[in-house]
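Supplementary Methods. Inverse-folding protocol.

Structures were first reduced to a discrete structure-token string of length 127. This string, shown here, constituted the complete conditioning input.
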């Protein structure tokens, strides 16, 4: 059996982290999981072109899925920090960098690492 390449490791990790957040938010339906797969496919090409970008792929996949969900279903994930005012989605920061987090831009706080949203919203924790 051949070892898994760093590219594939990064893509599998990104997939797992985003799926954990979707499960935590109780939105991991088949059509939503397909959005994750579409993003991973597109990001595979991107990382093949720029291998140094492998450490950024988890945040990019999270952003891709968030954007696709906005177009089809609405804002996701909704901020669990702000109890008053208009419901709003969390953002992924940094936009292009390692160690991506879900943040509330309105309150200016980190809510959870990508893949750990369940801990912040009271959904199933990632394992």
């Amino acid at each position: 059996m051949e070892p898994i390449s760093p590219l594939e490791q990064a893509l599998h990790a990104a997939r797992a982290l985003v799926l954990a957040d979707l499960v935590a938010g109780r939105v991991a339906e088949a059509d939503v999981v397909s959005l994750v797969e579409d993003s991973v496919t597109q990001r595979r090409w991107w990382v093949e072109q720029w291998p140094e970008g492998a450490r950024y792929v988890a945040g990019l996949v999270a952003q891709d899925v968030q954007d696709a969900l906005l177009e089809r279903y609405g804002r996701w994930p909704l901020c669990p920090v702000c109890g008053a005012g208009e419901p709003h989605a969390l953002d992924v920061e940094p936009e292009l960098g390692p160690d991506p987090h879900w943040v509330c831009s309105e309150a200016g706080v980190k809510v959870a690492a990508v893949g750990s949203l369940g801990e912040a919203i009271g959904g199933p924790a990632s394992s």
